[in-house]
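lol so apparently i was supposed to do this last week
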Amino acid sequence: MVRYGEKKVRSIMSKSGIYGVKYAINPYIGCEHGCVYCYARFVYIKMGKDPLEWGEEVIAKTNAVELLKREVVANRRGRVLISSVTDPYQPIERTKLLTRRILETLQRYKYPVVILTKSPLILRDLDIIKKFNHEEVEAGITITMLNDDDRKVFEPGAPSVDARIKALRILAGNIANTFAFLGPIIPLFTTKDLSALLELIADAGVKRVVIDKLNLKARNWESINRALKENYDKAKIREFWRILRDPYYYKKLKRKIINEAGELGLQVDFCY
Ligand code: SF4
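anyway here it is w/ iron/sulfur cluster bound
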């Protein structure tokens, strides 16, 4: 059971070190998608909370829009990522509408945006997203694996793979800069269906795919290991960690992805 709360914060636009964006906006603290590999759990470490509890609580920043209306005027215009350490379209957004109202404000003040989510709920806001100049909005859906039983282990609170692929198709039909975020690539789980995943992404009409590796940070290895132990046999778990110790693993994978994506006409950008 996810616990919900509310909080007033002091600012809502934070400077971002992420390549290609100037600011990040996170309407919520915590994320009920609760992905076991999520390293946004560093937020919990900073707050003195147990990072293994990531996914169990979501706090809405109730004054987000009020603050944003001031900050868009005070700050210099620049690309805004929604979001970096929470999912802007997790279930609570259905009723809180913070992301929707943030987008309305950014559009009114002509701030370019990049939206990244795992949820088809993004489609609710297509009316606003389509009001941005087409070069000023990028929308991405994250897909990390094809098998939905595995997905339930790694992303227990997130929408199904099928729902995300369907959403990607609709998004690509409406937004020129739609991308699929294939990340993190999880050894054995993403890779066993990697070719089929790339084909599905291309078939959905998406032209660009962004790839990231699995980053072991903020004690996410503890939640990954816990999930592996609860769901898979010892041999598979040993193999999983053995692959991750190979310093050339992701480099070798890069070549394979570039070749396969190239054949499908997909542009590929790597975060690693
Ligand atoms: S959806 Fe994103 S922010 Fe939320 S738990 Fe998963 S990886 Fe973390």
